[in-house]
Write a structure and sequence with these properties.
single chain; Arc Repressor Mutant, subunit A; five-stranded parallel sheet; 39% helix; Two component transcriptional regulator, winged helix family; WalR-like
């Protein structure tokens, strides 16, 4: 087990960092604790799986290149018993790796080098999306859906969907114009900061994971319609 420190706020969310680079882990531990969060560190993938299994972990920050078993395998094992949000942290930023991580159930993907402040913001975004729905937010009803634009959250029939930033952006864009067909280019323009970092396959992959989460929330039939050669639309 890596560096574990006691934290005087036992009710604060707990972030588990699985990374074999001590300098990176120490930087993240300091950044997270400075923001009032609990943070633990482990060096190995097997340790990460067992720590999540033990309970109490609110977000897992997971390095892809762990020395015993890779981060993708760790995510696959964790997803067999837990829906804890997973943020991949890796030196490999190729699209194929991002796509694979998302298909395995990852929620976000950050490439090294990164800003500790950005990582804290991403962690907090994941925590907000897991917050209870009845929290005084300004929910805008859109059929079976409700959108909290300030909190970047979407509910389906009262249940808050556990969405990544891109899944949220895609679904929110579709919900703005129910029944309208949005091309992949239009969706990329709304969901990605830079279209150079994305492509048709990336949009399709996020739609696939979004559909899986909607299915898990009881959305039958699938509210997202595919219009071959044109794009996607959400049922009016």
């Amino acid at each position: 087990m890596g560096r574990d420190y006691a934290w005087p706020m036992p009710t604060a969310p707990l972030i588990l960092i699985a990374d074999d680079e001590p300098a990176i882990a120490d930087t993240l531990l300091y950044a997270l604790r400075s923001e009032g969060l609990q943070a633990e560190h482990c060096l190995l993938g097997r340790e990460a799986v067992e720590r999540v299994r033990a309970g109490g972990v609110d977000v897992l920050v997971l390095d892809v290149g762990l020395p015993d078993i890779g981060g993708f395998d760790v995510c696959r094992q964790v997803r067999a018993f837990s829906e804890v949000p997973v943020i991949f942290l890796t030196a490999r930023g190729e699209e194929i790796d991002r796509v694979l991580g998302l298909e395995l159930g990852g929620d976000d993907y950050v490439s090294k080098p990164f800003s500790p402040r950005e990582m804290v913001a991403r962690v907090r975004a994941r925590l907000r999306r897991r917050a209870p729905a009845d929290d005084g937010a300004d929910w805008q009803e859109r059929g079976d859906f409700a959108v909290d634009r300030a909190g970047h959250r979407i509910r389906y029939r009262g249940r808050v969907l556990d969405l990544t930033r891109y899944e949220y952006a895609l679904l929110e864009a579709l919900l703005q114009r129910p029944g309208a067909i949005l091309s992949r280019a239009q969706l990329m323009d709304r969901a990605w900061d830079s279209t150079a970092a994305s492509g048709d396959r990336t949009v399709d992959t996020h739609i696939k994971t979004l559909r899986a989460k909607l299915r898990a929330a009881g959305a039958e039939p699938d509210p997202i319609r595919t219009h071959r050669g044109l794009g996607y639309a959400i049922a009016a």
